[in-house]
């Protein structure tokens, strides 16, 4: 090879090789280069105004207002039943925290039977096992405390990665999923589905760039080899970190026309999602926004609500990686806040669990280290046993989460007890006690599908903590099979 050829190849490799690892950064797999300068504390304020905070409410005041709104929307008649809904986020190895919360919950004797479980990415794997109840706790515990990275994937050689659609071979993970999803396992899922309980898994359709929700119980209920293959492929798609694991192709039939879709990790489009309980066809007319009053919505975030501080190397990929990591965390917090708003308007009790900010843990979601994952598992288990796992409100209102305005470069760490932010008077809200007789039109239903509770059209968009409109109930396609029948899951318009 000539000297010129070596120069051209070397120059090309220097450009392409870092780009090949960009998906790792996007997926939260971070590479840090520690700089000389120390990392300042997260909670800082200007010396001349240490108590300037942008939070107009304290957590207690927000909880009080939320309770008042729930009470004002209490239906005249008590709902026929009280539901328990569990929503699990993605997070890779951080799923060990979710596993610890669930297993510890069982040990306390207070874990309910969930009417609905939804899962994204690693949360989809846990959701399928948790759907069958505490009998699968040992398997969940074993997977999230004993699994190593090599048990799930193998990184391609660097040169191969340059010309591949993904960086790692997830065949070991596929083999594990296949060994778990046996015909007997599917029969058990189908049995719970027949009782009216629901299991949903989210994937991202790269073609439409939207979340797709799969009704896993309906798929399992078919009891065919094809349905088992689809069940497994949906789980592989939900855990397919873009660019890191291979995407999953689905051959679908749309009104008699064959199409192909490419699906990846559900966390690309949603950090966590909510789905209403199943309502039999004969009772759907009476199923409205107040039907969930006093039901419980449990959200478990496999990770922290805010990223940990870390040194940043002044290189394009490092800057982009840290920025996108911040964006991913911000998106997850927005989703958590949206579900908090939804719980208020429907009267559901809101319960949020996440890894504490002060907890020292791994910095990569794809690094499966049994020692560190066991620590995460035990932290979730400890919180449940100590009664500190659940918070009634979303992030942004704790002392360490305040956003303080700066007046210059002379900073200080605020006092440990913090400064009480300005408060607003809490006044009882006058809300209509009955729903209007004319409700938004609903698309045609299919037997076995569920309804999202309709809300006032004027309440479809509620400002979040930054004043940005957030849709309360976006239209997610619900699937129970690969071919798509005419129409979609019924949703409130």
Provide a concise account of the structure shown.
This protein is of the alpha/beta class. The chain has helices at 3-20, 22-26, 59-72, 95-108, 122-130, 137-146, 158-162, 171-180, 183-194, 216-221, 225-238, 316-346, 370-386; strands at residues 45-46, 84-88, 116-120, 154-155, 168-169, 198-205, 210-215, 248-254, 257-265, 296-301, 349-354, 411-412, 461-463, 469-471, 478-479. α6 crosses α13.
3D architecture notes:
By secondary structure, the protein is of the alpha/beta class. Helices cover 33% and strands 14% of the residues. It has helices at 3-20, 22-26, 59-72, 95-108, 122-130, 137-146, 158-162, 171-180, 183-194, 216-221, 225-238, 316-346, 370-386, and strands at residues 45-46, 84-88, 116-120, 154-155, 168-169, 198-205, 210-215, 248-254, 257-265, 296-301, 349-354, 411-412, 461-463, 469-471, 478-479. Strands 2, 3, 6, 7, 8, 9, 10, 11 and 15 form a nine-stranded mixed sheet that branches. Helix 4 (95-108) packs parallel to helix 5, helix 4 packs antiparallel against helix 6 and helix 6 crosses helix 13 (370-386). The protein starts with a helix and ends in a 14-residue tail after the last strand. Residues 1-36, 421-427, 431-475 and 482-493 have low confidence and may be disordered.
Task: List its salient traits.
about 500 residues; alpha/beta; 9-stranded mixed sheet; two-stranded antiparallel ribbon; globular; disordered N terminus; disordered C terminus
């Amino acid at each position: 090879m000539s000297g010129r050829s070596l120069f051209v190849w070397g120059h090309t490799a220097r450009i392409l090789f870092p780009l090949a690892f960009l998906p790792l950064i996007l997926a939260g797999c971070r590479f840090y280069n520690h700089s000389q300068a120390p990392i300042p504390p997260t909670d800082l304020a200007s010396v001349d105004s240490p108590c300037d905070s942008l939070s107009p409410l304290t957590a207690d005041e927000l909880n009080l207002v939320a309770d008042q709104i729930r009470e004002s929307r209490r239906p005249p008649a008590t709902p026929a039943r009280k539901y328990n809904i569990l929503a699990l986020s993605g997070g890779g190895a951080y799923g060990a925290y979710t596993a610890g919360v669930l297993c510890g919950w069982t040990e306390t004797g207070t874990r309910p039977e969930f009417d609905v479980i939804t899962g994204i990415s690693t949360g989809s794997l846990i959701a399928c096992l948790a759907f069958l109840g505490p009998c699968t706790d040992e398997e969940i515990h074993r997977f999230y405390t004993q699994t190593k990275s090599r048990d799930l994937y193998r990184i391609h050689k660097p040169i191969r990665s340059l010309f591949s659609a993904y960086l790692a071979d997830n065949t070991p993970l596929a083999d594990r999923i296949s060994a778990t999803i046996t015909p007997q396992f599917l029969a058990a899922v189908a049995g719970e589905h027949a009782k009216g309980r629901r299991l949903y898994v989210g994937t991202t359709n790269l073609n439409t760039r939207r979340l797709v929700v799969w009704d896993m119980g309906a798929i399992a209920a078919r009891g065919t080899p094809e349905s088992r293959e689809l069940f497994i492929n949906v789980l592989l798609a939900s855990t397919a970190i873009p660019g890191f694991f291979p995407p999953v192709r689905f051959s679908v039939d749309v009104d008699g026309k064959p199409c192909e879709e490419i699906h990846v990790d559900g966390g690309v489009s949603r950090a966590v999602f909510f789905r209403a309980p199943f309502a039999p066809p004969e009772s759907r007319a009476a199923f409205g926004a107040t039907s969930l009053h006093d039901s419980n919505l449990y959200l478990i975030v496999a990770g922290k609500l805010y990223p940990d501080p870390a040194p940043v190397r002044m290189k394009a990929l490092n800057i982009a990686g840290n920025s996108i990591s911040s964006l991913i965390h911000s998106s997850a917090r927005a989703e958590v806040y949206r579900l908090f708003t939804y719980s208020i308007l429907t009267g559901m009790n809101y319960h949020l669990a996440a890894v504490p900010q002060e907890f020292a843990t791994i910095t990569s979601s794809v690094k499966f280290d049994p020692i560190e994952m066991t620590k995460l598992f035990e932290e979730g288990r400890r919180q449940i046993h100590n009664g500190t796992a659940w918070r009634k409100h979303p992030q942004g209102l704790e002392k360490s989460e305040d956003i303080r305005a700066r007046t210059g470069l002379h900073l200080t760490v605020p006092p440990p007890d913090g400064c009480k932010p300005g408060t607003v008077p809490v006044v009882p809200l006058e809300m209509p006690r009955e729903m209007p007789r004319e409700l938004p039109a609903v698309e045609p239903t299919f037997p076995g599908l569920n309804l999202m509770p309709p809300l006032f059209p004027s309440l479809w968009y509620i400002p979040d903590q930054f004043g940005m409109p957030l849709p309360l109930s976006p239209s997610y396609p619900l699937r129970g099979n690969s071919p798509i029948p005419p129409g979609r899951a019924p949703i409130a318009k």
